[in-house]
């Protein structure tokens, strides 16, 4: 085969790559056949082309890339083997008292893995807004696990970065728990650990900046939050192309867009959210794309661009249906109500919000139901709607249980006919936003 290639000029083999730029060039094909293709070219050119023609392999690739993204390690043994085993290891630990969990993580070698440490850290961040006490315990467990990692097997610098991330995650959880001084100490310790391990930056450093930006945003220190997010984005993109994580980059841009919306930078926020929505996050990130599009639609409504919001909402319907998630579809319905109101369709907005609130309650999501109820209350409903609003409040407030903020609990005993006035609803909505973490 090689002799034939030597006698046929490469010029005669060329195809019009302008018609299909995804094809391999004759030069690349020749190097592949003769064994002279370098690893970089193989990974960047040949593998993507071959995967594109096999849907089964493409789906497998996406699953593996998602696991790699979650584990944040580029060694195949670590991210594939440890990442796959981590959920089962956590299932064995989860039911145990926290003190016993800590003891086992510190003493049992099979629990001292990068994969489990990373899983605990992610679970802590996910739980922070809803259950801060549990989030602190998870971050503490992750921090203990990270200290026990073998820094010869995993690379000393990488272990140091992961330890810093666990400390920052504990600081993030403590902030939501109300331990603001402890949170500050943890973030400072994370920064110090990064200096000690002489990190070169990268995705884990970007995650630390992203967490700190989340705190600054909820403290309404928007310029600081935006500056941290800009640094996080630069760190996330300043890695090898294969290591870039479009999903995380989209999250950074989405959080920045939210900060800009909340601080009055509407037009800039819309541009940022459009950029986030345009990133190739993959088929397995439909929920993330929907979340970004919801923020973008609401941003357009706030800027008075209701027609553009309605058009984007219409374009998003198929994506919401493809997600196959009832919760996501209900969230999109809530956005639909906001758009309907902006278009002057008040009665339609009321009907949608009542329906959405009750459906969220049926699914066991009282916080989501409360958010829809408060949207309804801010509409200044007509007299005929007040009874429905009062009944909705009676149904939802008890379901919130201990998560209900004090002002909402006190309000349950208020005059039933005027339980949720528009002014009170707006105050409650503001408190709920401060009390509960959102997606970014």
Describe what is shown at a glance.
By secondary structure, the protein is mostly helical. Helices cover 74% and strands 0% of the residues.
Structural commentary:
This protein is 74% helix and 0% strand. The chain is mainly α. Helix 5 (55-71) packs across helix 6 (76-94) and helix 19 (346-362) packs antiparallel against helix 20 (366-377). The radius of gyration is 25 Å and the shape is globular. The termini are far apart. The model is unreliable at 1-21 and 402-418 (pLDDT under 50).
Strand tally, please? 0
Structural class determined from secondary elements: mainly alpha
Q: SSE string, helix = H, strand = E?
A: HHHHHHHHHHHHHHHHHHHHHHH
Alpha-carbon Rg, integer: 25 Å
How much helical structure, as a percent, in the residues? over 70%
Tally of separate helices: 23
Q: Approximately how much beta-strand content do the residues carry?
A: under 5%
Largest sheet: none
The rounded distance between the terminal residues' Cα atoms is 56 Å
Unreliably modeled segments: 1-21, 402-418
Shape, principal axes of CA atoms = globular
Average pLDDT rating: 79
Features:
single chain, 440 residues, mainly alpha, 74% helix, globular, disordered N terminus
Topology (elements, then pairings):
Elements: H1 2-7, H2 10-13, H3 26-34, H4 39-51, H5 55-71, H6 76-94, H7 98-107, H8 114-127, H9 132-147, H10 156-177, H11 180-196, H12 203-218, H13 222-237, H14 246-262, H15 266-277, H16 286-302, H17 306-323, H18 326-342, H19 346-362, H20 366-377, H21 383-400, H22 406-411, H23 422-435
Helix pairs in contact: 5-6, 6-8, 7-9, 8-9, 8-10, 9-10, 10-11, 10-12, 12-13, 13-14, 14-15, 14-16, 15-16, 16-17, 16-18, 17-18, 18-19, 19-20, 19-21, 20-21, 20-23
